[in-house]
Each structure stands twice: as structure tokens, then as C-alpha cells.
Amino acid sequence: MKLPARWPLLLCIALPAIAAGLWWCLRAPAQHPDSARYLQREPALALVAGFVSYASIADTGALLRQQGHPWSRRTLARPPDPRYPPHVIDTMTVERFVMLGTAGRLSLQFFNDRLFEVDFKPDDAAACASALKRADTLLRRDRNGRAERVDGAWRLATNVELAASTVGKSLATEPYLLWQDLRLTAQRDDWDARFGALPYRLP
């Protein structure tokens, strides 16, 4: 039976469409379906010293430049893989940063380009503890000299009183102050619990 003259044209149109449909159905997904959840930004919290949670590396770097602080950056990233959402941890470090009456080392941690933690290690624990007591009258230390205050998703944890004490000095305790957005720390921990055991896929 002779085919109508229009059939070759129809075949030329249909075959590529069918091939494209099969490729779309059979191909591996480009990214994990939960990727957007691990990248989204929520309303920011003021953490400390002008730093806000969910800020990008670019915006935080601009703030540090404005303040005249040089910094270094370290990145730890899981290779892209459709088996899990993105996982990139960046750390920006300022070696000499003045806060709460003393200089020290400042570290800013980002999870997928969203600031979630500010870590300050003061050079003078006693001066820092005294300034912190004046700055935050709601902070209460436990019997071991550590202190924590949580206000919604905002958290401050510190051991400066312990580090400044005789016991702390004898143990060479390193003082720290830690400000966090608990929404992002919870999301980071959730990622680790769900996907952290997956091995890296070799190239």
C-alpha cells in the first residue's frame, strides 16, 4: 500500500520527539528532589557584630572589606551527585578581629552559601568574660563555667569564664564564643543524618 506523501514529514517530526521523550524518562535526575530545601533562604537573624544569618559569602566579604579586615577562605564540598542535595561548607577566617574588649580570631561558617555560625576565639578570656557579662545580662553560666542562651533560633554558647578561671588555665582551655542560627545548624545536621553515610562517587 502506498503511504500518503505527508508521512515522511510526520515521521521526521515524530521520531525526534519520541527519542527526546525516551531520553527524558530514562535519564538520571540532574539534582536531588530536596535540593531546593537545602538552598533556600529564610528571614535573617542578627547574630553579632553586624553579621546576619543566611548572608551570602559575597555579602559577608563586602562587610569585612568595609570594616578593613582581610580574610582567608576554605571550602569543603561534596561533589555534585543526584543521590543527595548540595553540601558545601565554607569558612571565612579573620585572624585579628576585635570584639568584646579583646582581639581574637573570627571564623564565619556557611552552609550552601548561607551564614549559620560565628565563632570567636579571644586572646584575653578574662577581659572578654568581663565585657560579655556587661553586654549580655541574661547570660547565665553553669557550675562548670560554661554558658548558653537561646532566643528562638538564635543561640550563644561560650566558655570564656571557665577559660579565665584557675581551673581553665591549668587545663589550657581554649576560650570561645559561638553564635548560631539553629535553623541552619539543624538543617546541616539533618543533611548529615540523611546523606552523610553515602560514599563519594569516583569520577
Could you describe the 3D structure shown?
The protein is α+β, with helices and mostly antiparallel strands and 203 residues long. The protein has one domain. The chain contains six helices and nine strands, in the order H-E-E-H-E-E-E-E-H-E-E-H-H-E-H. It has helices spanning 7-26, 57-67, 125-135, 160-164, 166-170, 182-195; strands at residues 46-48, 51-52, 72-77, 88-99, 102-111, 115-122, 147-151, 154-158, 177-181. The strands form two sheets. Strands 3-4-5-6-9-8-7 form a seven-stranded antiparallel β-sheet, with helices on both faces. A hairpin with a 3-residue loop joins strand 5 and strand 6. The longest helix is centred in the first third of the chain and has 20 residues, at 7-26. The protein is globular.
